Amino acid sequence: MRQTLLARVATIAAGAAALTLAITGPASAHVTVNPKTATQGGYTKVTFRVPNEKDSADTVKVEVNLPAASPIASVSLKPLSGWTAATEKTKLATPIKSDDGEITEAITKITWTASGDASIKPGQFQEFDVSLGPLPKTDQLVFKALQTYSDGEIVRWIDEPTPGQEADHPAPVLKLTLGNDDAPAASARPVAATTATSDKSDGSSGTWYGAVGILLGLAGLVAGLLAYQRAARNN
Fold first, then answer.
1. Most CB within 10 Å of its CB: which of 32, 67, 82, 204?
2. What pLDDT, in 10s, does the model give residues 61-113?
């Protein structure tokens, strides 16, 4: 009887541990963009956060692709010590109209390359800041990213979001909302202003709460089984 109960406890514990790792592990390793939302037609500063998910290699290069189908007229980079930034432009099929005239080409790729000892070490992350605007009139911007390691491996964070599915290598996505001037006239409620603050948790707080709940539930189950075992032995 005792061996059967212990076997059940071990099986449940192993399952709970695997589920906890599934909840907390992969989510923290993705390349992300912060903040998660911005306003159409406005300017914003975004931060691409790149964690190193390998134990035996450094991240030495990061490439971020800006969607050519939704071009952004102004793209400027914040200097980062130890990293060299290069941009590539694409000729636009439809020029962008601006206060300074028509813009016929736009930046569609940014590549950061580490020099010296600036590479992202195992267990570390780096942040790359970019100023963008005016943001196009679209629901979202998908920034496909490539992460190159010192051992030659390239991880492609290029999977576009699919409703109801979790991608293995999701691309960073910036959701774009309507500005106050674009809100429907029939709406009496003002559009809430977007707070351009960095999301430090990347959603990890919620996943950790879920993991804690699983572990507490497991502890309660183990206690109940042990109590049942003691009662059976006394009888």
1. 32
2. 999 999 999 999 999 999 999 999 999 999 998 888 877 788 899 999 999 99
